[in-house]
Amino acid sequence: MKYLVIVPTYNERKNIAEIIPQVLVISDTNEKVLDILVVDDNSPDKTYDVVKKFSIKDNRVNLLHRMNKEGLGKAYEAGFKWALEKNYDYIISMDADLSHQPKYLQNMLDGDKKIDLLVGSRYIKDGGVVGWDWKRQLNSRGANLATRIMLGIKTHDVTSGFKRFSRKLLAEIINFGIKSSGYAMLVETVYFAKRKKYRIAEFPIVFFDRRAGESKISGELKKSAKIVLRLALERFKHL
């Protein structure tokens, strides 16, 4: 079984220098193949140069250097297509800011292979968030609850960016087409898996607020709300 961790980056030079060695440690302690692909949208801080240096020393580290900043959804779409072309069996999405602790990759590797979408969840028993004030936690939980109700999704953390996709599911998602260029693709992929009756499961993670760099989520709430509303309208048309 071949696993690939995809990490989209934009001005994450400091964080990616910590993430890559931690992913490789997990890879070293497993018999399974675990590689990493960094999808960088031409970061002004030259994050891609840091990744290049790692890739020269270790062929498990790969770089997809894109020339334009097009959003999280487009970066993941490019990474997903790369993974499918390279024949990976399972593809893992992970944030670049160390909010997703690399130690949880072991859960992705050990998870039931019959599960098509395995979600690292903040909002189930033993999951949680560290470093957010009550307002941000309330906003996140409220957005999750509203989205779950509107789309009829049982998954508790629909906005989690820490997911493991089966090759079969991911190929169908790409064939169908990712509609969102931004953070709404996190919801879109869960909704697609649910609608197509793929097997979905969650395991608990503790999410840490970023330690370095700036958040890229500013302005995404309204865009994501529009995508969720469109998906909800599509859902009710087919009821």
From TrEMBL:
Gene3D superfamilies: Spore Coat Polysaccharide Biosynthesis Protein SpsA, Chain A. Keywords: Glycosyltransferase, Transferase. Residues 5-173 form the Glycosyltransferase 2-like domain. GO terms for cellular component: membrane. One of its GO terms (molecular function) is dolichyl-phosphate beta-D-mannosyltransferase activity. GO terms for biological process: glycolipid biosynthetic process. Belongs to the glycosyltransferase 2 family. PANTHER family: DOLICHOL-PHOSPHATE MANNOSYLTRANSFERASE SUBUNIT 1. This is Glycosyl transferase family 2. It comes from Berkelbacteria bacterium GW2011_GWA2_35_9. The lineage of its organism: Bacteria, Candidatus Berkelbacteria.
